[in-house]
Amino acid sequence: xxxxxxxxxxxxxxxxxxxxxxxxxxxxxxxxxxxxxxxxxxxxxxxxxxxxxxxxxxxxxxxxxxxxxxxxxxxxxxxxxxxxxxxxxxxxxxxxxxxxxxxxxxxxxxxxxxxxxxxxxxxxxxxxxxxxxxxxxxxxxxxxxxxxxxxxxxxxxxxxxxxxxxxxxxxxxxxxxxxxxxxxxxxxxxxxxxxxxxxxxxxxxxxxxxxxxxxxxxxxxxxxxxxxxxxxxxxxxxxxxxxxxxxxxxxxxxxxxxxxxxxxxxxxxxxxxxxxxxxxxxxxxxxxxxxxxxxxxxxxxxxxxxxxxxxxxxxxxxxxxxxxxxxxxxxxxxxxxxxxxxxxxxxxxxxxxxxxxxxxxxxxxxxxxxxxxxxxxxxxxxxxxxxxxxxxxxxxxxxxxxxxxxxxxxxxxxxxxxxxxxxxxxxxxxxxxxxxxxxxxxxx
Length: 444
Description:
Blueprint: E1 33-38, E2 46-51, E3 54-57, H1 58-64, H2 69-77, H3 84-88, H4 91-105, H5 112-116, E4 119-121, E5 125-128, E6 136-139, H6 143-153, E7 169-171, E8 177-179, E9 182-185, E10 188-191, E11 200-203, E12 207-208, E13 211-217, H7 229-232, E14 236-243, E15 246-247, H8 248-254, E16 268-270, E17 275-276, E18 284-285, H9 303-308, E19 310-311, E20 314-320, H10 322-327, E21 332-338, H11 346-353, E22 365-367, H12 382-385, E23 393-394, E24 400-401, E25 409-416, E26 424-434
Parallel strand pairs: 6-22, 8-16, 9-26
Antiparallel strand pairs: 1-2, 1-5, 2-3, 3-4, 6-7, 10-11, 12-15, 13-14, 13-22, 14-16, 14-17, 18-19, 20-21, 20-25, 23-24, 25-26
Helix pairs in contact: 2-4
């Protein structure tokens, strides 16, 4: 599950100088994938790999025909506008391409001169969503988030009895997933104001973010063929950052008995870069439960998952208000957490999703659910940080927030670091809230 190879060597350096900076998200040990085109152009989207502050154009590289075998096949798939075909080839093919790219981008590469012409500055590109996402499933894998929200909603019974046994999830809306950098209008929906018995149609007053990890599926499974836990990791292509925006007042009115609907289908933001599981191998960590907690059912328990099923991935939320932006004030960090604290691992999500025979397809996306830690400043949503809107946060300049205001820009960041290895990052996942569009006529 966590096999190291020559691409993880901390001594590697790249001929792209910015990849060698200690705080770079994209050293030669990372090499995440995305789709892009030059900003302002009418070029077709194609695959790219991040190296330092540059994008290596994989479509143009494919035209040069530099690789052979599995690496050449994978590179050809990356010349497409979406990466589904590349993801479908599986981890072995992705690993072959990543190894070939690692060789080509190292400081001693004889290909440096001709590949330098294929670099495009990241600041000069437009990204698309990396894959055509057929299905999107959002999990609820952080027990700290589940407990914090449960205490707000059900103080006497914060954690429902199924939580510790079942990887809870709902099926979200794939059509409204957008890549980092977009803007979206504040959603409108039915809300039930406190002290009333008749709902009203209104723009949400309790707009929230959710700090999540996105999981892209690689090769899928046939309908009816469940994926055993021991093989579940091999069906995962890689990870990104994900913000599952939520209208909390709409959610509280509509979610019973079938769960989220309009409260979450208006926008989901993901980061453009997908970091492969192979790149994350040095940062795997043991997955465990406290000794006094029930062990998972057998189909969700495996020695390899216990040994290295978690991922030591640091996560942060940053906020920039419109007033801060106008005044040139830097964004403020609201919280931080770590993906290793999740109650359920990525492999367990895959195994449970397919338990009844559901077929996963290349490019399908999972959300991890809001990732919160055990401490108050590790909450992954404003719902938790403000105790349901009862405790306002004060921003630089004196502004206060219980939930998001128009003009707010929320940025998620994530990275892995461990002594003896080079830091790698997931980039940034950002979007800005616009005012609501006019509500439809509510007259009966």
